[in-house]
Amino acid sequence: MQSARAPLVTPATRSLHRFSADDHRCRIVAVLSPFELAHFFPDGLGEAASAHGLPEIILRPVPEKNTEPWAWGEFLEQERPDVLIGGWDMPGLPAPDEEGRGGCQAIPKQLWPGYVCFLTGTLRKKIPRCWIEQGLLVSNWGDSISRTVAESALMLILGALRCVAANQHNLHQDGGWKLPHRPEQSLFGRRVGFHGFGRVAQALTRLLQPFGVSLRTFAPGTPESAFFEYDVHTCATIEELFSSSDVLVELAPLNDHTQGIVGRELLELLPEGAVFVNTGRGQVVREAELLEVALARRLRVALDVFETEPLPADSPLRAHPEILLMPHQGGPTLDRCRDAGDFALRQVAAWLRGETPSAIITLPVWDMSS
């Protein structure tokens, strides 16, 4: 099945060895479903590779929503990929058992690819921690989706202010017309706060510019230069951020410090009637307390992420039609998955040139993933 090829370049030598774009010793293998192929590379995988000056990318198709385990050792022995491209439907690399046996140790390191370029975001279910710990180079879609997540956050802000969820329920389920007292509000001139100031928050600042809002953030560890570049006021404490924001957008990374950090104490600092949007990580927020405070202080809430996903059918959040809910779809719309596909191939081209790709999944990044 496999044609003759040049001697294997092992992971140890790959760290020093790179290929030119037309070097056919480089073997790039993509493990993709038809769905992924159609949306990440809508012009075709060959066209995409050629546009980035890459050698042929060998496609090994998998079923959509694939859950079948693979004999990864046999696959890697047969394919010998220098670069492996995967996504949502790629079978997960083997994980260790409860005694720590198996996992990455089950496959000789000389068979490992030099680089795994993951097309999508969170990959914990696809690449167990031991692979990263033992030196496998992996990247994900990085900030290629930041603008579309920011677009979704803007939609949630406007939807909450304009009472879209309540209006839709009133029109569709209750047979009503206008809500009493016209509760809709405008975004113009509001004080908008970001808990966290990464790429999504930075992209969102640009989308908010036409609304004449004032921006503030609490984001420990973020370089001061970022605040200056985006003209964002930095709050000395998280309490100051919550108490001074008409609109609070939750975008903090998930780690030991931020797990469950947003609860009653902070939420009660929001001005009455304020907007609370979460497009970051669901487990940063204590949902039960959010619901209690939202009802008591008439907060306008819009959520795209949750403590438990999928959102349980009996979640109390579902019982309140004025709360705007989305099913964790703040990432790229299908028509913009091509941005992540383009980003991925640029990273592969960089790796071939001997450069370090962007969006590398380090152990801290893996640990913060959901």
TrEMBL record:
The keyword Phosphoprotein belongs to this UniProt entry's keyword annotation: no
Keyword annotations from UniProtKB, A to Z: NAD, Oxidoreductase
The D-isomer specific 2-hydroxyacid dehydrogenase NAD-binding domain, residue ranges: 154-330
GO cellular component: cytosol
GO MF term list: glyoxylate reductase (NADPH) activity; hydroxypyruvate reductase [NAD(P)H] activity; NAD binding
Gene3D superfamilies for this protein: NAD(P)-binding Rossmann-like Domain
One Pfam short name: 2-Hacid_dh_C
Tagged with keyword Cell cycle: no
InterPro entries, per database record: D-isomer_2-hydroxyacid_DH, D-isomer_DH_NAD-bd, NAD(P)-bd_dom_sf
PANTHER family: 2-HYDROXYACID DEHYDROGENASE YGL185C-RELATED, 2-HYDROXYACID DEHYDROGENASE-RELATED
Name of protein: D-isomer specific 2-hydroxyacid dehydrogenase NAD-binding domain-containing protein
The organism of origin for this protein: Termitidicoccus mucosus
